[in-house]
Design the sequence.
């Protein structure tokens, strides 16, 4: 079904794009479209994604218009566009964010045999509003000159008093850390999580970082002995795309996968007001399928939905036991986890 929208909508959407600093990269996501088109709002920013969208078009004849933006800004944008939104698919990073979009009623549930087959049950919304496309891990990263990797087997070990002044952390505004704490909370309960957080905060060498990469550089330089970071940041520092000097710093860092390791997702859903939900579902099925899922994960040195993939840098880090906590549970524990972080002094 095609909905014809007045030209007003287009200019309003583009004005919003300007106000929010969003880039319209391929085609015009805000233009009215035919049944043979699908508009995707994505929090991802990789050229290889565009190659996959082209491949989808080649296979299905459905054109993909891409609008990239920051995750939280895309949620605000979709909300403000309401039923006039031109978006059919929303792609966001982190379970907590995708669940926030669901709570804002930005998705419509879909049912798809292909998605139920390709996306494990713990990596999708039980009601079918969103589906994971890739997985990312948040392991411990150590500078062995300062901290013995063999002394660390679990996230609990980061609270040991002997790490005082050696632990660097990203700030609590990071949804990645909120989800990590939600994971521990789900596994161990509030009392144990609180005392773990107190130990962690007591060990922190300030300042709290605002992103993972500078924190990893500090570990590489020996300013910090240990941290937790998403694996793709270290992989990027080790890759050919690395900034000068980063590779040498990254090579000083050892990845320690705690047992179990916290895993998060990139996920997608069909928007509530999608004018082309069938095409949108087909695009998500395509991205979640084992063959194109490989490429989607590879773009950001992430893991596919099943197994560990073939990325040589990631394989060099070793494999891990993923946490049993589902993406849905990570999201629903976010509020309590964030409150505990505030109470225990995580800056
Ligand atoms: Fe990230």
Sequence:
């Amino acid at each position: 079904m095609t909905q014809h929208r007045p030209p007003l909508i287009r200019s309003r959407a583009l004005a919003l794009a300007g106000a929010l600093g969003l880039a319209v990269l391929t085609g015009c996501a805000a233009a009215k479209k035919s049944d043979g088109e699908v508009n995707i709002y994505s929090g991802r920013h990789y050229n290889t994604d565009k190659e996959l969208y082209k491949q989808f078009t080649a296979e299905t004849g459905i054109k993909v218009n891409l609008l990239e933006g920051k995750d939280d800004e895309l949620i605000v944008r979709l909300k403000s566009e309401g039923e006039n939104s031109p978006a059919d698919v929303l792609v966001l990073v982190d379970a907590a964010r995708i669940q926030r979009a669901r709570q804002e009623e930005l998705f419509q549930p879909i049912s798809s045999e292909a998605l139920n087959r390709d996306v494990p049950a713990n990596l999708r919304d039980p009601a079918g509003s969103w589906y994971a496309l890739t997985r990312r891990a948040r392991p411990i990263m150590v500078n062995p000159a300062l901290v013995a990797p063999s002394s660390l087997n679990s996230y609990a070990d980061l609270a040991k008093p002997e790490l005082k002044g050696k632990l660097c952390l990203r700030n609590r505004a990071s949804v990645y850390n909120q989800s990590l704490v939600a994971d521990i909370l789900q596994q161990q309960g509030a009392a144990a999580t609180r005392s773990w957080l107190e130990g962690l905060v007591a060990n922190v060498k300030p300042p709290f970082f605002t992103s993972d990469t500078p924190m990893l550089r500090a570990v590489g330089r020996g300013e910090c002995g240990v941290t937790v970071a998403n694996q793709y940041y270290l992989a990027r520092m080790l890759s050919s795309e690395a900034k000068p000097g980063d590779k040498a710093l990254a090579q000083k860092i050892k990845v320690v996968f705690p047992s179990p390791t916290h895993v998060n997702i990139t996920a997608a859903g069909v928007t509530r007001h999608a004018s082309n939900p069938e095409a949108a579902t087909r695009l998500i099925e395509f991205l979640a399928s084992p063959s194109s899922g490989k490429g989607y994960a590879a773009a950001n040195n992430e893991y596919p939905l099943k197994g560990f993939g073939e990325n040589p840098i990631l394989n060099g880090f070793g494999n891990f036991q993923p946490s049993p906590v589902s993406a849905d549970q990570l999201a629903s524990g976010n509020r309590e986890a964030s409150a505990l972080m505030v109470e225990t002094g995580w800056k």
The first helix runs from residue 7 to 20. Residues 1-32 have pLDDT under 50 and may be disordered. The pocket of fe (ii) ion is lined by residues 230 (CB under 6 Å). Residues 151 and 157 are 8 Å apart (CA to CA).
